[in-house]
Amino acid sequence: MNITSLLAKSSITWADRPAIAYGQETVQTYSEFAKSVKQLAGAMRNNFGLKAGDRVGIAMKNCTNYSVILFATWHAGLTAVPMNAKLHLREFEFILENSGASLCFVTNDLEKGIKEASEENAGLTILNADSAEYGKLLESKEITMTETKPDDVAWLFYTSGTTGRPKGAMLTHRNLIMMTISYFGDVDPVDEQDSLLHAAPMSHGSGLYILPYVAKGALQIIPPSGGFDPDEIADLLLSHKNVNAFFAPTMVTRLIDSKKILEGDTRNLKTIIYGGGPMYVEDCQRALDVLGPKLVQIYGQGESPMTITALSRDAHTPTDDPRYLHKLGSVGTARSDLEICIVDENDRTLANGEVGEVCVRGDVVMIGYWRNEEATRQTLRDGWLHTGDMGEIDAEGFLTLKDRSKDVIISGGSNIYPREVEEVLLKNENVAEVSIVGRPNAEWGEEVIAFIVCKDGTTVTEIELDELCIANIARFKRPKKYRFVQELPKNNYGKVLKTQLREMV
Predict the structure, then answer these.
(1) Which of 105, 241, 244, 390 gets the most CB atoms within 10 Å of its CB?
(2) 403: CB partners within 8 A, 6+ apart
(3) With contact defined as beta carbons under 8 Å apart, do 165 and 94 qualify?
């Protein structure tokens, strides 16, 4: 079924309940939300001439229009392409061109840059969702929900790859329905008295979790800042009840370091679902001391949206279990809608306690990468999604991640792939070799460190390399430190030994 049916049903059952709030003020009820979706979907089809399966880009910071645009896209039988608002303009340009998007909604802060970056993309229309023109679209004639098939693509989730180019994970209506159902059974129950606070990007985890909350008639809260501000969150907790939020681990630690949170009233905070990177056990215990038993951990990736394992609220609650701290350091147990196994380099299943690659299968797993058959073949093998993450499963089914075979660096909940940064730095004519590794950082989880080998008789400054990164990639991917070395450690096959580089930092 079309994923928008979740909203259609809620708009009948909870027609007059608040659906979207901006800060403390309700912006739309569920009946108003559904009406706007039908009207905008009509405009997409009739005003812009979009056809079933066409792609619609969303390059927007968190705002009250976000959910309307997302559901209108699905209502019209189209494919949404949400993009992190912090991406570099060249990254926006690539994703819009690669996806073949016909229409892209933007916010004021991104309109000029994306228009300039997409000047040669003749088939793309860019529309400011903050403009009067957008407001007029909400007066368009409503259309009925487009019938879709379970395996029609609903969301193209672009995630950077080891090749340095983003890959679009094709998430279907079936995938998103299974993710939603599993949320209720494995993460947290939701009802119409709950609310979801969007302090993390709606282009990723926070946006995916719109679905289970809309399905149960819960409220979505957009903070006026459009992002994460602990003091603002403390104020919103005084106005809204049963508040839930998806945070990266670094956001959790920043929250509990806030004086306003420590001294304020957090009784209205129901649950923090955290994921997107490792959470140190010590930080987790401190969060439990400050907030109480309100933490749930999820482990997933764009290819299996938010749905691989979960560490329940009960598992976070201190007990006399001698393995309590071990479980707290894990990412939980397999979700109800999929299977997990650990395999070696030959794809042979390993026994409990052995470390290998984490593989998963189930109806929540993507159907492949958009227009990238080779990457699809490499990642989806024999019916299993090969995550690229290394881990082990214990006798009780708890998965503990050990390392990432793809060397991904997770900083502030965002994935940074070394190859992407390396390719940018190699653009400097004086750089002979470069290797990127992550270094533990108490605030951000990890930070990017670059090892640079200059060509004989040449030098390059950190300022030059910084300027190169600023011109080509998002700021959060920039190295925090450059180490200039004579050579990189390599094995007999010439492969750089990143394990040795990590030891050096």
Answers:
(1) 105
(2) 389, 390
(3) yes
Single-letter residue type at 88: H
Over residues 354-372, the mean pLDDT reads: 96
Q: Amino acid letter at 193?
A: Q
Instruction: Identify the CATH homologous superfamily for domain 5-389.
Output: ANL, N-terminal domain (3.40.50.12780)
Q: Which amino acid is at 328?
A: L
Question: What residues form DSSP beta bridges with 80?
Answer: 56, 155
Q: Encode 126-135: b = buried (16+ Cβ within 10 Å), e = exposed.
A: bbbbbeeebe
| Calpha distance 504→212 (Å, rounded) | 45
Domain extent listing, the chain: 5-389, 409-504
Phi, psi of 209 (to 5 degrees): -80, 0
Measured distance CA(26)–CA(338) in Å, rounded = 37
Model confidence pLDDT, tens digit, residues 141-183: 999 999 999 999 999 999 864 345 789 999 999 999 999 999 9
Name the CA radius of gyration of the chain, rounded: 23
b/e code 445-461 from CB counts within 10 Å (16+ = b): bbbbbbbbebeeeeebe
Confidence of residue 415 (pLDDT cuts 50, 70, 90): confident
Q: What single string gives the DSSP state of each residue in 178-215?
A: HHHHHIIIII----TT-EEE--S-TTTHHHHTHHHHHH
DSSP line for 43-60: HHHHTS---TT-EEEEE-
**Domain 409-504 indexed as CATH 3.50.50.60:** no
3-state helix, strand, coil in the chain (%, to 5): 30, 30, 40
Furthest C-alpha separation in the chain: 73
Instruction: Judge whether 287 and 269 are in contact, CB under 8 Å.
Output: no
What DSSP designation does 351 have?
A: P
Match 């719109």 to its residue by tokens: 210
Tokens in use for 71? 């559901």
Q: What is the pTM of this model?
A: 0.85
Rounded to the nearest 10°, the torsion over CA 468, 472, 477, 479 is -10
Going from the C-alpha of 258 to that of each of 29, 287, 433, the distances in angstroms are 32, 12, 42
| Residue carrying the six token digits 């905008």 | 40
